[in-house]
Structure formats: C-alpha cells, structure tokens
UniProtKB/TrEMBL annotation:
The keyword rRNA processing does not apply. GO terms for cellular component: plasma membrane. It comes from Kitasatospora viridis. The chain crosses the membrane at residues 39-64, 70-89, 110-139, 159-179, 191-211, 223-245, 266-287, 313-336, 363-383, 389-407, 427-450, 470-489. PANTHER family: AMINO ACID TRANSPORTER-RELATED, MEMBRANE PROTEIN. It is found in: Cell membrane. It is a multi-pass membrane protein. This is Amino acid/polyamine/organocation transporter (APC superfamily). Keywords: Cell membrane, Membrane, Transmembrane, Transmembrane helix. InterPro entries: AA/rel_permease1, APC_superfamily. GO terms for molecular function: transmembrane transporter activity. Residues 1-28 are annotated as: Disordered. It comes from the Bacteria.
Length: 506
C-alpha cells in the first residue's frame, strides 16, 4: 500500500526540502500491539451490549411498544450495510482518523472534518452520561448489599450528582489504563466481557424459559409499530445501541493486520444483533410493557430481581457496572486516536499528537478527552435525573451517528464505484448496500429531527422538550463547522488545501 505523505504546510523550494521538513515534523507512529482477539474485544466493549440492554431496551420499548425484536432487526440492516463500507475502506487505508480521513479524501474536507468532529463530540457526550450510568450501577449494587446511606446521605441511584461523582472515579481509572496501551486495555476488557456475556446469556435464557408473558411472533412485525414517529425514534435508538462497532477502525494503525480490524468489527456487530434480539424477547417474556418502559436505566436490575433472589439477583447489575466501565475505556481509546489523526493533519493543535514516550499511545489526548468528558458530565447536572439525562443524550447522539455513518457509507460508494463495472457482485456490498444504508439513516435521522422541531412551540431546558432535544445535535454540527473554519483559515491546515490521495485500489 502506498505511503501517504502529510504536508507540514511550509513553502519549500525543492522536493528535497519537502522530504526533510515532512520527516522532521511528522508525529511518531503508534505501536502495532493488537491482534485479532484484541480488535474484537475493543469493538465489542465499545458497543457495550450489557449497557445497551440494561438501559436502552426500556427506553426503546417506551417508543415502539412490544416490537423490540422487530426494531433491533430492522436497525441492524442499514448498520450492516455501512459496516461493509467501513471494512473495505479500512482494508485499503487504515487510519486512526477512519471516517474523518476517508470522507475528507473522497467527498470534501469540510464534510470529513465534520464527520470526525461529530463522532468525537458524540462520544464525549456518551462518556458524560455513561459516567452517570456507571455511578448509578454502583449505587444500585450498594443498595442490594443493604447499604442505603453513608453518614447522613441517602444513596439515590437516580441522582445525577451522586452517580456522576462516583462515575468520574471510574472514568479516570479507565483512562489511566488506556494510556498504558490498547493491548493492556483489551486484555482487561476480555475478562470483563466474558463475565458480562455469561451472566447475560444465563439470565436471558432463564427468563425466556420461565417468563409468564405469552410469546408472540407479532413482536417481530415492524408494521405493528404504532406510528411513523415511533418507527423513526425507535430506529435511532436501536442504531445507537449498535453504535461503537466502528471504533475498531480508529485503532487500525495499532492492529497488526487491517483485515483483523475489519473482521473484529463484523463479528462484534453480529454478536450484538443476536444479543439484542435475544434480550428483547427475554425481557418481554418476563416484564409487562409498562414495567419495562418505566424502569429505564434500572431495567436490567429490575429484570434480575424478577428472576432471582439475592445474591444471584445482583449478578446482572455487576455485569452492567463492568460494561459501563469497559465502555468508558473503550470510548476514550478511539476518540483519542481520532483527535491524534486530526492533530496530525493540523486541523487541531499539536498537543493531540503527543505520544507516551514508552507506550507510544496518545497519552495527552487521552487525558484531555477524559477531562472534557468529566467537565461535560458536571455540566449535565442541570438535568436532575439519570433517566432524563440518558433520554436527551441518546436521541442527540443517534441523530449525529446517523449523519456520519451515512457520510462514511457515501464516501465508500464514491471511492469504489469503479467496481460497478469490474466486479458487480462485490459492488453490491461496498457500493450499493452502503448507499441504501445511508439513505435509510438520513431519512430516519432527518424525520426525527423534524419531529422534534414540530413537537414544541417554545424552548425549555428539559429533556422532554423537542427544541431542547434538537438543539443538542444542532450544536454538535454548528461547533464542528466553526472548528473547521478555524482550522482552514487560522491554522491553515493542509487537510483543507491539498489534494489527498484517493487510490482506486479494490
């Protein structure tokens, strides 16, 4: 594969000076320390199946009713199409910036920067509310151990203040492990995942057998979803559950073989789909719809308590706590790599390219991302309950995820369009399917954004206010355009001014 040269933005007088200048200022490369198993573990930890099941199913059930299996299968199809785009782009051009680099090369640098920016900002928002989810699971676990007060303070698993403070401790600990390297993080998360999946499969299987709610094949019927708005919001929530599989492509420069990153993304995505459908059916066998929808962030805890007595009933909660902690770590790793790539292109400052002298990880960026997520988590304290915080964050992230997934899929379709003539069957996977997936997600995200706008006639700082829910993704996109303008005209980043290589390698 050809080596991509990055300009330093100087005005050399000869090709020799260009080479010398580039080599003297090019950031040091990260270490290729991850194999196939590690790639799968990072991708699976980023999607955080246990967390998505524990908090996402209740939210989604409140929208689509008893059609959770249908919406999970329906959302899987466009995401699978887009996974084909990610996998093929990564094979020919593994890059820490992943979609930021690919969209910028193929479509437009402004769109590429925006793709990278909303990805990073969305992940930071996710980390901010996952901090609260982690703290909530710790407090819930303390409650199941009959610890309900510390001194004169009553522990409340739905208090954003208490949950955030506890979760921040976990966030900083996870970030320190990430600084040590993706290999150590992957080894740690491998054991956490094994425990999570054993607990999940055991409890879900047991619930499927002993549940008292009658099974219905109508649960798999997408046409039974109450309305078009419910379908759109349910799709966004379900896509959010699958979100994260692509994080493995952000560590593509640290994986020994690009094919292992692609394989890891596909395997983790498929496993997630099976788990989500399995969990949807099991939850609906055990919990009536109202109970499922009402418990939100504590859905997995409630499910465990319905099936078992203590201490066994606490196992799903322990799994949720491990999943939330692992997803914090798995989120900071690809986000720091994305910022590293942007700093390398001088669209962001050089601090993001500073590697740890021993571990060759973007240590400064990892700690900065952690600090930003912590600050945002503190700002989110204006939303009083964890349930409301999750609802507002998930809808916002879902809309921007639909946007940057669609842009990445479009970039793949444009880049590999020559396959329509030379390899029509392959083109179905890397051109036609990604385009169809992109159209579905853009339609769903656009409709949901419009419904938020149309649902209110004034603005309130409230998670249930449509204008507030719309403001969050709008701010993500608007700040991205402002940051791009700063990078283009103030930093004079070569990312915007030079013609990048767009090889037509198949």
């Amino acid at each position: 594969m050809a080596t991509r040269a990055r300009s330093t933005g100087s005005d050399p007088t000869s090709s020799t000076s260009t080479t010398e200048s580039t080599s003297s200022t090019e950031p040091a490369a990260m270490r290729k320390s991850l194999g196939a198993t590690g790639a799968i573990v990072i991708a699976a930890s980023s999607t955080a199946a246990t967390s998505s099941i524990g908090i996402g199913l209740g939210l989604t059930a409140g929208v689509v009713g008893l059609h959770l299996p249908a919406i999970m299968l329906l959302a899987f199809l466009p995401v699978l199409c887009i996974a084909g785009a990610y996998g093929r782009l990564n094979l020919v051009d593994p890059d820490a910036g992943s979609s930021y680099r690919w969209v910028g090369q193929v479509l437009n640098p402004w769109l590429g920067f925006l793709t990278g920016w909303v990805n990073v900002v969305g992940t930071v928002v996710f980390m901010a509310y996952t901090v609260a989810v982690t703290g909530s699971s710790i407090i819930q676990l303390a409650g199941q151990a009959t610890l309900h007060r510390i001194g004169g303070l009553r522990l409340d698993p739905d208090s954003t203040l208490q949950c955030t403070l506890l979760g921040l401790v976990v966030l900083f600990a996870a970030s320190l492990v990430a600084v040590r390297g993706v290999d150590l993080a992957a080894r740690l998360q491998k054991y956490l995942l094994a425990f999570e999946y054993l607990v999940l499969i055991g409890f879900l299987g047991y619930g499927l057998v002993v549940g008292t709610q009658p099974f219905s094949w109508g649960w798999f019927d997408p046409f039974g979803i109450p309305s078009l708005h419910a379908l759109a919001q349910g799709m966004v929530l379900a896509v959010f559950c699958y979100w994260g599989f692509e994080s493995v492509f952000s560590i593509g420069e640290e994986v020994s073989d690009p094919r292992q990153a692609s394989r890891g993304g596909f395997i983790s995505l498929t496993v997630m789909m099976l788990l989500f459908v399995f969990a949807s059916v099991a939850f609906q066998r055990v919990l009536p719809l109202q109970e499922l929808a009402d418990n939100g962030a504590q859905g997995l805890t409630y499910y465990g308590n319905k099936l078992a007595h203590q201490p066994l009933a606490a196992l799903p909660l322990v799994a949720l706590m491990f999943s939330a902690a692992a997803s914090l770590q798995a989120s900071v790793i690809p986000t720091a790599r994305g910022m590293y790539a942007m700093g390398r292109d001088r669209t962001l400052g050089p601090v993001w390219t500073r590697l740890h002298p021993r571990h060759r990880t973007p240590a400064a960026g990892t700690l900065l991302i952690t600090a930003i997520a912590a600050a945002l988590a503190v700002l989110a304290l204006v939303i009083p309950t964890v349930n409301s915080l999750i609802s507002a964050a998930v809808n916002a992230i879902g809309i921007v995820v639909a946007l940057y997934y669609a842009l990445t899929a479009t970039a793949a379709a444009v880049r590999f369009r020559h396959l329509l003539r030379s390899a029509p069957l392959e083109a179905l996977r890397v051109v036609v399917a990604p385009l169809l997936g992109a159209l579905v997600l853009l339609a769903v995200g656009g409709y949901l954004a419009w419904s938020f706008y149309d649902s209110a006639d004034h603005f309130e700082l409230n998670a249930d206010n449509g204008w507030f829910e719309l403001l969050v993704p709008v701010m993500m996109i608007a700040t991205g355009l402002l940051a791009a303008a700063w990078a283009r005209w103030r930093r004079r980043s070569p990312y915007f001014t030079e013609r990048h290589s767009t090889r037509t390698t198949s």
